[in-house]
Amino acid sequence: MLDVLNGSWEGLLFVFHWKTFMFMMMGISVGMIFGLIPGLSGLTGMSLLLPIAITQPPETAVAFLLGMYSVTTQTDAIPAVLIGVPGTAAAQATYLDGYPMAKRGEAGRALSASYFASVWGTLVSTVVIILFLPVLRNVIDNFASPEFFMTSLFGLVLASSLVGTSVARGLIVAFLGLLLSTIGFAEYARQSRFTMDIPYLEAGIPIVPIALGLFALPEVLDMLLKRSSIAGDGNDLDPKTGALAGFRDTMRNRWLVLRTGLIGCVSGMIPGLGGTVAEWLSYGHAVQSAKDSSMFGKGDIRGVIAPESGTAAQKPGALVPTLALGIPGNASMAVMMGALLIVGIRPGPSMLFENLPLTFQMTWTVVISNLIVAFLCLWLQRYLIKICFVRADIIAPTIFCFMIVGAMLSTNGIGDIVLFGIFGVVGYIFKHSDWPRVPLIIGFVLGGLLENNLWITTRRYDAAFLWERPIVIVLEIMIVAIVSSVLFARMRKQRVQVAQSEQSFED
Fold it and tell me: H-helix or E-strand containing 500?
């Protein structure tokens, strides 16, 4: 435990190195804007900033990316509360009670509560990680190639089955990501695969053009096609009042913050769940545990506090599988994992031993970023809200030019632009045809890990690893249980919808 505390202290000192802190503040500034603009998100920002981050040392790169990623779920509450338009998907539950509060003149109270709930949720998650880390390291010591393979498969199946409206579509998209990861020269097989004699593909396809095209370009195109202000017309709401009332509400509901912080942390640790799942689990817990739930959806402050705490807490939690196992906790962590590999850091058990200070630097970056942005939002929110009304035809071309430059930084070749365009089209089609995009990027990142560990496992253990290793058996049972539960839940929902439609037809 002593080495964990020492690593935590060293990581905290890394955060406050002048260059690291400067890049973290730059990331925070960008993240605040991306949270404010409806349609953009931490994933889009991570994709856009990745080309800049990979030119920096590891400590600076992670501070830059995590500074941006950490704060989007705080500023996304501003448009959700003030104008009823969630800045990201992770603010949808906040909107349910935050916007009704704004309409009755309590916007400042709702926003203040959301900021402080995010800070406390992040702190709860960090404390859990510090306490849980010694146990996690003992578990990781028992991991070999079979466990890494099955854990990767578990994260891939989980992300594929829980994202989108169709399990089959999620699995198909994840399989497509796996296929894309096989492009290039395979060292163990000593042969090129799917390169079609194109030199650009020999080294494999880079993640930056894929992430930019898949997630960022469709959002920018939609913004441009609106030909109006990004968030539409707003109301004359005063976000300045109620800051102290929001702080009191958070302290009054401190046990709710603690419970939803734990829910968010665990949701982050499970690969594939992400902020949206943590948000709705936290909101559902708030409704179920309330003695009087009649005001939820009509302007209950607990409906703001719970989802904001849970969403913020999942971000430090998502670092655990990403760093300890090399399994991205969510799509943004998949991009972060790609950035770490590019700057020379290989996620895995070594992050809990040799690179423990860097691991804690990433955790502290999330915490400190949330603290900083909470006070910045309280001070600047009267001005920040104006960004929500910038015309899309002004901001979209600027972002598009930045994406073109960012995509070319991977190999400085025209192939990056072609790849960016191809995946931009794919991302746009997927977005507007109800096909999930997250499984593709997770499948692409996990593909190499899955293939290498499967190759080592089958040669050392044959097929016996499937029934001889306890951790593998547990993960197999969990995969079957999760897929079965998701399938049954969606079949039950379809039956209910059919029955309701038949009833309405008879009426």
Answer: helix 470-506
For the chain, percent of residues with pLDDT exceeding 90: 2
Classify residue 481 by burial, with Cβ atoms within 10 Å: 0-12, 13-18, 19+.
Answer: exposed
What is the pTM (predicted TM-score) of this model? Answer: 0.65
pLDDT band at 272 (very low <50, low <70, confident <90, very high): low
CA atoms of 196 and 415, how far apart (whole Å): 14
Q: Give the end-to-end CA distance of the chain in Å, rounded to a whole number.
A: 66
Q: Give the mean model confidence (pLDDT) for residues 482-498.
A: 76
**Around 49, how many Cα atoms within 13 Å sit in the side-chain half-sphere?**
29
Sign, CA torsion 420/422/425/427: negative
- 192-206: average pLDDT: 83
Residue-level pLDDT at 506? 60
Give the integer Cα–Cα distance in Å for 286 and 293: 9
* Burial class for 434, CB neighbours closer than 10 Å (0-12, 13-18, 19+): exposed
For 477, the token pair is 């049972």
Torsion of CA 273, 274, 277, 279, to 10 degrees: 160
